[in-house]
Design goal:
14 helices; mainly alpha; 54% helix; Tyrosyl-Transfer RNA Synthetase; globular; three-stranded parallel β-sheet; two-stranded parallel ribbon; 330 residues; Rossmann fold
Amino acid sequence: MTIPKKRVLSGMQPSGLLHLGNYLGALENWKSLQHEFECYFFVADWHALSTNYADTSRIHEFSRELLIDWLAAGIDPERATVFIQSRIPEHAVLHLLLSMMTPISWLERNPTYKEKQEEIKEKDLSTYGFLGYPVLQAADILLYKPDFVPVGKDQLPHLELTRELARRFNDIYKTPVFPEPKEHLTKFPKVMGTDGRKMSKSYGNTINLSDSEPVVRQKLKTMVTDPARVRRHDPGNPDLCPVYDFHKIFSLPMIQAQINTECRTAAIGCIDCKKLVADRIIERMTPMWDARAAMVSHPSRIDEIVQDGSQRAAKVATATLAEVNEAMKI
């Protein structure tokens, strides 16, 4: 008798082009999970409306680019169910039903609610949708009854709200419809952007997966280094240098040790240091670029993958919502 695989669910917002931080922080993890679990990976295009409701002109474009990057990075549609959130209306229905029983205080204590408002000051985020997006997130998760959700420690409060809503629903309607998903903790490497801050679309400091080799090299040439190292013969401190953080991710230990020593003694300059890590990054990205080019030249393949994935996801979503309606007697 075959034992069913445990189920994993995760998604990403199409709020911009994917970058190295997304690849190292999520996609590499997804690639390994798809060999061990029954995986559902979705494009959270409705979630993108929570911060981009005033300008939706590029959500469709970013959704498609996101899918291309996933597949180019190694997400296998034969192993994982890949779909788009808005293709499955049950997400919206379950969000509505859960929102009817969610205490406002649960949403107001969300640690990222005020943080995001401070971070994205150029947009009006004092909306019902932004306050309530954790409920939509909970609906996304609970609809597929996953055993695990890949998260970093900073995302644990969101997953705990999902568990609280599962318990609340089961308690109110005296029916164990929703199991409580567990966290699959992943160590996301802190990937620095070209300006020395965390790599982020909102900061404009990214190296995108869709960037060409010349663009990647140019971005790395302008990347900030140890601010105390003004002249070529000044000794540097790799511990303060974002470029060395890239070496720790992409370069072999032997090269890391060499750079560490030679930077401190000014035996190597920042230009040569950047070129060494650029070569390693290009080496990692080249297979993705090749896969990307192949998919861009066959756009119908993307549509086929999404259609097939959406059909598979819909079967699970429809069955879960039927249980919900039965429990609620509606």
